[in-house]
Amino acid sequence: MMPLASFCCILAYTTLEQVILDLGLLKPMKECKGMSEQTNEWKDNRGAIARAQRRASESRAVITDIVFPSDTNHLGTMFGGKVMEYMDKVAAISAMRHARCAVVTASTDHIDFVQPIRLGDVITVESFVTWTHRSSMEVYVSAQSENLRTGDRITAVTAFFIFVALNDEGKPTAVPGIVPESAEELQLHDSAAERYAERNKRMEERKRST
């Protein structure tokens, strides 16, 4: 059995749907059970595949909590793993809101710990779907810390999470496209295809070097 760390590393740098199929973890794509074909994609009058569209704002999710001593290390700052747990949860909510199916975390990308989150701060973790492929979704997540005494807020951590939508049989299923509206949504949507291509390129380079 492939170690979990190696599996996550592979997923971070390849076409997500393809590597999952290649590893035999999931079977080829079928539509969600109970979900009409028109929900996510259909054929137009010319026989071309068209996709349903949902606004990025519809997928937004927020988690807010206060940082307790059990959440921090010996320096009084929040454990990175704890922050990532919040980020994975809120990102999964966004992905499920968009796909209206079960989802699995396939990879994380560009995790940047910009500022520490300290004991007693309030942490607010927000996410939304930025871009979709056929069955995969890119979710942008940001974690902000707030000092309750001063009211100061800073962006502490940002990351991209990749999810794959599954139907009731546990197989990859098509997801709607994204309609970005705000300036932030438009910027991240416009640059998402480049990030997707970079993941694939790194995977190809990895294959050639092994």
Automatic annotation (TrEMBL):
Protein name per Swiss-Prot or TrEMBL: Thioesterase superfamily protein
Sequence ranges assigned to domain HotDog ACOT-type in this UniProt record: 57-169
Organism: Paenibacillus curdlanolyticus YK9
Keywords attached to this entry: Hydrolase
Annotated Pfam families: 4HBT
The family this protein is said to belong to: Belongs to the acyl coenzyme A hydrolase family.
UniProt-listed CDD domains: BFIT_BACH
Keyword hit for Transferase: no
Matching InterPro entries: Cytosol_ACT, HOTDOG_ACOT, HotDog_dom_sf, Thioestr_dom
Keyword Hydrolase: yes
GO molecular function: long-chain fatty acyl-CoA hydrolase activity
UniProt GO cellular component terms: cytosol
Any one biological process term the GO annotation gives: acyl-CoA metabolic process
